């Protein structure tokens, strides 16, 4: 794992750690997990295969 950069500010990861297991299980079951802020989807947790397919589709 990458070492923390002493020149960067990091947030407390406690909240994400509480739901991370559920996110992983959902993705392993073939689902995506939308992350919503103020009623708008701002990101989606997907499997590495889905992410790679999306990157290929975008030509990256």
Can you offer a commentary on this structure?
The protein is an alpha+beta fold and 60 residues long. It is 42% helix and 18% strand. It has two helices and two strands, in the order H-E-E-H. The protein has helices at 14-28, 48-57, and strands spanning 33-37, 40-45. The longest helix is centred in the middle third of the chain and has 15 residues, at 14-28. The two termini are 25 Å apart. The mean pLDDT is 89.
Question: What is the strand and helix layout of this fold?
Answer:
Blueprint: H1 14-28, E1 33-37, E2 40-45, H2 48-57
Antiparallel strand pairs: 1-2
Work out the radius of gyration.
14 Å
Strand proportion, as a percent range, falls in 15-25%
Q: Note the run of SSEs as H and E.
A: HEEH
> Strand count, sense and closure of the main sheet?
2 strands, antiparallel
Count of DSSP H/I helices: 2
Strand order of the largest sheet: 1-2
Shape: extended
Structural class: alpha+beta
Strand element count: 2
Work out the helicity level. 40-55%
* pLDDT averaged residue by residue: 89
How far apart are the first and last residues' alpha carbons, in Å? 25 Å
Low-confidence stretches: none
